[in-house]
Write a structure and sequence with these properties.
The chain is of the alpha+beta class and 1644 residues long. It is built from 23 helices and 74 strands. A hairpin with a 7-residue loop joins strand 16 and strand 17. Helix 3 runs antiparallel to helix 4, helix 6 packs across helix 7 and helix 17 packs across helix 20. The N terminus is likely disordered.
């Protein structure tokens, strides 16, 4: 349709109609579709899509709105307003017409762009054609040159050069042919581009008039736009004037109100002054009454203090009297003990003189006393308990009588009280048992029955055995044996019973040995009796003893057995004990019959192999019965002893030194190491509670070198504690005595100072066999009082018991001493005076001269007045101590003063004439400073804008250990001190952060000092300085308060940054600004690890220019916090899996994580508090457990933190750096001034998100990964409402043309509910896609990032090298071939294998064959997709598998099977492998041939079409049987084309393949062939190699046919010759091979 006709036919009256552009667009689309097949140019613009909206339409809408306001009701109603001036256009201009004008301009621009594109295509095609023609010309020149060179070389008979040049000529001809073909293609392309260009030029000419009209309309539109701008500016000027008038009225009203407020304030001030005078009158009266009350209270306090002083003095006198009485009692007790010891010594001497064992007698006496005492105590305890029980019974009776007044519920009162009465009688019968009258008589009888020892051991050994026997007797006669038994048993009855006597043990062993031998006639009852039957033989020695033996040595001992029976007896050796049979051998010779009194000898040989004590018996048999001889073998042992176990130094004055010596002797044959140490337990000597030292040594052997000491002090133990100690001691096996105590008395225990009694130089070493060593003990008293110490000699041998040594001594104090030896001056400060009174006491009846010594280091700080004096008899002396610590104390007295802790400890002495030791006392004090220290010497506020303030924090530290008050006084008006306006109290060593806020009022420099005054009127000055200035750039807001933003959401705020450096703006807004007008660069610096982003962060502002800045707050969880939580969960899971008992403790400890507190103003930091360092999580730990953002543990930790998140609040200060101007050069950095820096404060509250992604470890990124083009993948994402309120989520719209889609709708979620979003991804192009899905709820917007990548599968096939071109087989054979499919892509692919013969769309029933015949058989290389098939209807080719899936990097074998059922040479089929997205991997043409015999020939030219005949083979009905039918020859054609380039003819070569099929149906497995009449063929230049050959089954042989033209060959002559080929196998087949050859210049 013509352009003008379309304009006229348009229903609208505009200047351009849409029909024209429809035609243009259709023509452009057709042209584009034609050219898209040839090549693609990315930089060209095609008009196949609807253009987007233009930015000018915004102005158009704005003008349309303005026109609606100005003009209403005009026109015919088609337009919205008047967009053209009335003077230029008589009719109204509608909005649609103006939009049509912009659309026309856009279409014309697109048409021009399309015209330029086609011109570029034509120019490019012409250049290609020119280059191609130039190449053809150069090739022709080279060809002529090569032909000339070939002729020259032929003339020179240089065959090698001719062959080389012929090859070059051949290649050059091929290139020339290719260039000619390319020239034709380029020429056709050029014609097409020129035709399209002409069409476009024609169309441009048609629209030239319209272009002019559009330009005129655009000019009109610009004029209208300018007029509207002028009108709008006028309106704005009027509005501004109205606002100024309103502001003036408002200011007048404010001034009137201010005046009224001043009048009211003055009236109130006058009233306040009058009221203050009245209040002052009453205040004076109140103060007077208060002073009277205070005076009365002070008088009462003084009286109370006087009474207290009198009470203290009386208490001191009582204490002194008690001390003196205590000393007297101690002296009496000491004399009593000495007298008792003296009486015991006299008793021992008298007993020894009479021949008795004094030790045994004394020991038995003590045991009897102890037993009587225990029995008395038991009776007393029984009486007290009996009284308590009777009291309880009487109380119950009274209670029952009181209850009897009420009516009984179930039982009668008679029954109830009768039962109580019976119970009381029964209880009283138990409480009054009959005790034995004389418990000592059986004990004495037992003592008398103890036989004396007849061995030859020493007296010490006899005494030791007797002591053991007495211990056993004492244990047997415990009160529990004869006291009444209680009603019920208790734990005290489960104690281990003491072992019985050694004689009883020997009796039991003899009984057991007799039972083993079987000859003992005595019964078990007789064995346990005391009086056993006398043995028939006596042994001398009675016990065979091998003492101190060594291993691997032999010992012999003879024993003599004597018949002591009253009859003739015989003796027979039976055996030895099981413990001795490996070491003891007995040389026994039967003695025969022995009369009474006769004896014989036996030799016992002992050969020890182990170093252990052995004990056993040698068993004999006699006429009277069995008997045994005991054998004991003992190793070498250490037997130490000392000559004295108790040392008493007596009384000595403090300061003297006394020594005593004891001798340690080893009576054994074994050397041993010994060490002497002290015991940390109390001594039992001369104390009511007896605690033997060896018992304490055994109870705690590890603390042998630890001692406890104190001055002579005492304390009391209750009855229960003594009983507990007694029970604990009774469990030890070596305890031979018990605790003793008196009822109702206090037990006083004295601790001793270990320094007074010490050991000499010898404290350990080795003591040899039968060796003696002297040990020295020193007594150096330093503290007055009685000193006792228990030493223990311990040995390395575990079997040797420690030897206790008791040492005691008395120290007498000096006559003159200081009453208060420790003077504590408490806490003192430097440069202040402290006083104290030193009191010296004398107990002697004479006077002494005193000299107070002050060490040289303390003379500057310490003074005692007077320095010398005399103390009278039995009186005191007072001296005044003055202490003024100087600042040089740490240097002067480094020995006594610790500068780190401030502790001062000075030992002082008072020299007393005539006294050995001076009186000593110690001065203690803690000296501290009274300084208040600032952490900064000077505070520099820097440059601060007059519209902002600068906050600086200084730390004020109290260096004293005393609390101090402080206050900042005389603070300037432009300085603010916080907290508490600069007043407060500092605790000891406390640091307080003080905020100094600098608010400059004028742009000047400030230098001032801040004075901090302490409570003791000390001034501390802090110099400060700052500069006030006017900023070059101004922020519209200096504070941004974001809304509470959920974690994962974002909040955006918009501010403006303005450069107010132009003169008008400076005069209107900032009256005193004087900066130079210049462009300014700005840059926002964000805090590290913050959730803030600023856009734009950098930029440039001209004078008067304004820039919009967006600040975004996006709160997220820190990576460090999530990692710590994940590690904590891992440790908890590990502890739970290992079932540790303290899992709960670990969990509680991990839950209390140290979270650093936010910075708070005025926070107090104790100086002595240690700063807790939060160690970051170990990266090795995180790597060891495989912690990463996609791990399950990481997602669980993030989910837990989000669910437990409540809220957080953070403040950030964002700095905006402003340059001084533009840089002088392009590559030079601009200068940035610190004083121009702007500060933006951000308040960022974060809250818990209401929605949480619970799928995919809580990750809000849904990654579809690689998806094949054409496929569709569906993923699900689950969100949960973790808030406490129901929400109604909504989602944003996804791109309708994009690959992502949301398949389900949103629904409301109650608290805790979940919703699953179903999202699909179906890519259409091979690229990466990304899109954001917004899920909105009232308190947040959850962003879900969708990612995916469209990819093409990369699957390769090996059919080109694994499958042959043609498969040869015989009828009914099965031949299989394999090839591989390899998946080289990153995802799993699914494939399927299809055969054309199985496809419904494939040409069947010979349709493609008919088409091949109708085509005239022009191309013999083309074969039908489906050829000959089996007669059975089944496909001749089969494939396995038909479908499957391939994992990335995996391979799959595809098996192709060929199974023909009849002979044919044209079996064909097409195999296609494609993916599920219809992408084909490969197409394979399968060919098969089934000859009639197992030999075949291939490689010749086809002589017929590649299909079988549609007619069946003709078979004559009546064949001739008499005549022999000759086998026809099979014709074959082989065409050889020799190439001729540059006059050189290259020989032609062809190959024929003669093969033999390997088949089980073949009669002969191999074959042979031969050529006939080769001589005639060779005359024509044909050569065949080989002339004959043998072909094995399953292989083939290549026959090379070479034709070299003869010299008589003429151009364009065709040489043809026939040669017979005979093939022999199971049958003979003859082939007639026609060889046809010619020369062509275009041949390869």
């Amino acid at each position: 349709m013509d352009l003008l006709e379309e304009l006229e036919c348009s229903p609208e009256g505009g200047s351009l109609k849409s029909g024209l552009f429809d035609v243009l667009l259709r023509s452009f689309d057709e042209t584009e579709e034609e050219e898209a097949e040839e090549e693609e140019e990315p930089e060209y613009v095609y008009f196949d899509e609807e253009p987007g909206p233009l930015p000018d339409l915004d102005w158009l809408l704005e003008l349309s709105d303005d026109s609606d306001v100005d003009v209403k009701g005009e026109g015919d109603g088609d337009g919205a307003g008047d967009l053209a001036p009335e003077a230029d256009n008589s009719r109204q201009r509608t909005f649609a017409e103006t939009a049509q004008m912009f659309k026309l301009r856009r279409k014309l621009d697109q048409l021009d762009s399309f015209h330029r594109q086609k011109e570029h295509d034509v120019q490019k095609a012409r250049e290609k054609l020119k280059i191609c023609r130039h190449n053809i010309g150069s090739c022709l020149e080279q060809k002529s040159q090569l032909e000339w060179e070939i002729e020259q070389e032929k003339a020179n008979d240089n065959s090698v050069a001719v062959f080389r040049l012929s090859t070059q000529h051949k290649l050059l001809c091929q290139n020339l042919q290719n260039e000619e073909e390319l020239e034709g293609q380029i020429h056709a392309e050029l014609k097409q581009h020129e035709m399209v260009l002409n069409e476009v030029e024609v169309k441009l000419g048609n629209v030239s008039a319209l272009r002019q009209e559009v330009e005129e309309e655009e000019q009109v539109f610009q004029v209208l736009k300018a007029q509207k701008a002028v009108t709008r500016l006028e309106q704005e000027r009027k509005v501004s004037q109205n606002r100024q008038r309103s502001m003036k009225l408002f200011m007048d009203e404010e001034a009137a109100k201010l005046k009224e407020e001043e009048i009211e304030c003055q009236r109130k001030t006058e009233e306040f002054q009058a009221n203050r005078k009245v209040a002052a009158k009453y205040l004076r009266q109140s103060n007077k009454r208060l002073h009277q009350q205070v005076a009365e209270k002070e008088q009462q306090n003084r009286e109370f203090i006087e009474r207290r002083i009198q009470a203290v003095e009386s208490l001191k006198s009582n204490i002194a009297a008690n001390q003196e009485s205590l000393r007297v009692q101690q002296r009496r007790a000491k004399k009593k003990v000495l007298k008792k010891e003296q009486d015991e010594r006299h008793l021992k001497a008298s007993l020894e003189a009479q021949g008795f064992n004094s030790f045994k007698h004394v020991y038995l006496k003590r045991q009897l006393e102890e037993t009587n005492r225990k029995q008395q105590e038991f009776e007393e305890s029984q009486k007290s308990k009996r009284l308590e029980i009777v009291a309880k019974i009487l109380q119950e009776e009274q209670l029952g009588k009181s209850r009897s007044k009420a009516p009984p519920s179930n039982l009668s009162s008679h029954d109830k009280f009768s039962s109580l009465r019976q119970g009381r009688e029964l209880l009283l019968s138990y409480l009054e048992p009959k005790l034995p009258s004389a418990p000592t008589s059986p004990t004495s009888r037992q003592y008398s029955t103890i036989p004396g020892s007849s061995s030859t051991s020493s007296d010490g050994e006899n005494f030791k055995m007797e002591m053991e026997e007495m211990d056993e007797i004492a244990h047997k006669s415990t009160p529990s044996d004869f006291l009444a038994e209680p009603e019920f048993s208790g734990l005290w009855e489960q104690e281990c019973k003491k072992p019985v006597l050694s004689s009883a043990k020997s009796e039991v062993k003899e009984a057991e040995s007799g039972m083993d031998s079987g000859t003992l006639t005595a019964t078990g009852k007789r064995i346990h009796e005391k009086d056993l039957k006398r043995p028939p033989f006596s042994s001398k020695p009675e016990v065979v003893l091998f003492k101190d033996f060594e291993v691997e040595k032999k010992y012999k001992k003879r024993i003599v057995l004597t018949n002591i029976s009253y009859t003739i007896n015989f003796c027979k050796f039976i055996k030895t004990s099981a413990a001795l049979k490996d070491f003891i051998s007995v040389n026994f010779q039967p003695p025969g019959s022995l009369s009474t009194g006769m004896s014989f000898e036996i030799l016992v040989i002992f050969h020890p192999l182990i170093n252990e004590d052995l004990e056993g018996e040698i068993y004999f048999e006699s006429t009277c019965g069995p008997f045994s001889v005991p054998v004991r073998c003992t190793i070498k042992k250490c037997s130490p002893e000392v000559d004295c176990q108790s040392i008493d130094f007596g009384s000595h004055v403090v300061g003297e030194s006394v020594s005593r010596t004891i001798t340690l002797t080893n009576n054994g044959a074994l050397a041993n190491f010994f060490s002497v140490g002290t015991s940390m337990h109390l001594s039992a000597a001369r104390r009511p509670v007896q605690m033997p030292s060896h018992e304490f040594a055994n109870t705690d052997p590890d603390n042998e070198n630890i001692t406890y000491s104190s001055h002579r002090s005492s304390f009391s133990l209750s009855l229960e504690e003594v009983l507990a100690k007694r029970q604990s001691f009774s469990t030890e096996p070596d305890i031979n005595s018990h605790l003793s105590f008196d009822m109702g008395t206090c037990v006083n225990l004295t601790f001793v100072d270990y320094c007074d009694i010490t050991l000499g130089n010898v404290r350990g070493g080795e003591i040899g066999p039968f060796q003696s060593i002297k040990l020295e003990i020193l007594f150096k008293p330093t503290v007055p009082g009685e000193t006792m110490m228990d030493f223990y000699i311990r040995f390395s041998d575990a079997n040797t018991k420690p030897i206790p040594i008791h040492v005691s001594g008395v120290a007498v104090s000096s006559p003159v001493w200081v009453i208060h030896p420790s003077i504590d001056l408490k806490i003192c400060t430097f440069d202040r005076l402290y006083q104290y009174t030193i009191v010296v006491q004398s107990r002697e009846n004479r006077a002494f001269k005193l000299t107070f010594d002050v060490c040289r280091e303390m003379r500057k700080h310490l003074q005692i007045i007077p320095k010398r004096g005399f103390i009278q008899a039995l009186s005191t002396f007072n001296a005044q101590l003055k202490f003024i610590p100087r600042q040089s104390l740490s240097k002067d007295a480094q020995k006594y003063f610790d500068s780190d802790t401030g502790v001062l400890e000075v030992p002082m002495t008072v020299q007393v004439a005539g006294q050995v030791l001076p009186a000593q006392y110690t001065i203690h004090a803690i000296v501290t400073s009274s300084d208040l220290q600032f952490d900064q010497i000077q505070v520099d506020f820097g440059h601060c804008s007059i519209y902002h303030f600068v906050r600086t924090t200084v730390c004020l530290t109290n260096r004293s250990i005393l609390p101090q008050d402080f206050g900042f006084v005389a603070v300037p008006e432009y300085i603010e001190v916080q907290p508490y306006d600069g007043f407060g109290t500092l605790l000891p060593q406390e640091t307080l952060e003080i905020d100094l806020i600098f608010r400059p009022k004028k742009p000047i420099e400030y230098n001032f000092q801040l004075r901090c005054k302490s409570g003791i009127d000390r001034d501390f000055v802090l110099p400060c300085r700052g500069v006030g200035f006017h900023p070059p750039l101004v922020l519209s807001h200096s504070l941004i308060q974001f809304r509470p933003t959920a974690v994962g959401d974002k909040s955006t705020a918009t501010i403006y940054l303005t450069n107010y450096q132009d003169k008008e703006a400076a005069t209107r807004l900032i009256k005193v600004i004087s900066a130079v007008e210049a462009p300014r660069l700005f840059c926002f610096s964000l805090p590290k690890d913050s959730d803030i982003s600023v856009s734009p962060s950098v930029g440039r502002l001209l004078p008067g220019e304004k820039c919009l800045v967006q600040v975004m707050f996006r709160p997220v969880l820190l990576e460090k916090t999530i990692t710590e939580e994940a590690l904590r969960l891992h440790r908890i899971a590990k502890a739970t899996s290992e079932k540790e008992p303290d899992v709960s403790k670990v969990t509680e400890h991990e839950m209390k994580r140290d979270i650093p507190a936010e910075h708070s103003r005025g926070r107090r930091t104790p100086g002595f508090a240690k700063k807790r360092e939060i160690s970051p999580p170990s990266s090795k730990s995180a790597e060891r457990i495989g912690l990463n953002p996609v791990s399950e543990l990481y997602g669980k930790a993030r989910d837990l933190l989000l669910r437990s998140f409540t809220q957080s609040y953070k403040e950030y200060i964002v700095r905006c750096f402003v340059s001084d101007g533009d840089p002088p050069e392009a590559n030079v950095q601009p200068t940035w001034s610190a004083i121009n820096t702007l500060h933006l404060k951000l308040e960022c509250p974060a809250v818990q998100p209401p929605l949480l992604v619970t799928s995919g470890n809580g990750n809000n990124v849904l990654d579809f990964r690689q998806v094949y083009i054409g496929s569709r993948v569906i993923e699900r994402l689950t969100v949960q409402n973790i808030s406490e309120e129901p929400v109604e989520p909504t989602s944003s719209l996804l791109d309708i043309y994009g690959p992502f889609s949301l398949l389900n709708a949103m629904r409301g979620l109650n608290p805790g509910e979940k919703h699953t979003l179903v999202l699909a991804f179906s890519p259409t192009l091979e690229k990466k896609y990304s899109e954001i899905l917004h899920v909105r709820v009232p308190k947040m917007v959850l962003e879900i990032i969708l990612r995916g990548e469209g990819a093409l599968p990369f699957v390769t096939s090996s059919h080109s090298r694994d499958l042959p071109n043609v498969v040869y087989a015989l009828e009914k054979d099965v031949v299989s071939q394999h090839f591989k499919l390899t998946n080289r892509s990153a995802e799993t692919v699914e494939y399927r294998v299809m055969l054309a013969s199985h496809s419904l769309n494939s040409p069947q029933h010979g349709l493609d064959r008919v088409a091949l015949l109708l085509d005239g058989h022009r191309d013999t290389q083309i074969h039908p997709a489906v050829g000959t098939q089996n007669y059975s209807g089944l496909s001749v080719f089969g494939v396995q598998p038909l479908e499957g899936s391939l994992a990335p990097g995996k391979k799959q074998d595809i098996a192709v099977t060929f199974q023909p059922d009849h002979s044919s040479l044209y079996y064909t089929d097409r195999l296609t492998i494609e993916l599920l997205n219809k992408c084909k991997i490969c197409e394979i043409d399968l060919k098969g041939a089934v000859p009639s015999h197992n030999m075949y020939v291939c490689g010749a030219d086809p002589l017929s079409i590649p299909i079988d005949s549609l007619l069946p083979d003709f078979t004559p009905l009546h064949p001739r049987l008499t005549e022999a039918v000759e086998t026809p020859c099979i014709p074959l054609l082989v065409t050889l084309v020799a190439s001729c380039k540059a006059g050189v003819i290259m020989p032609a070569v062809r190959e024929l393949q003669v093969g033999c099929i390997s088949s089980p149906h073949a009669d002969k497995k191999s074959g042979e062939f031969h050529w006939d009449d080769l001589a005639a063929v060779q005359q024509q230049g044909f050569y065949l190699e080989p002339a004959k050959g043998v072909v094995e089954a399953g292989s083939s042989c290549s026959v090379t046919i070479t034709w070299t033209p003869q010299s008589t060959y003429k151009a364009f002559e065709v040489v043809q010759v026939c040669v017979p080929l005979t093939v022999k196998s199971d049958e003979i087949t003859a082939y007639k091979v026609t060889l046809m050859a010619f020369v062509s210049s275009a041949a390869d």
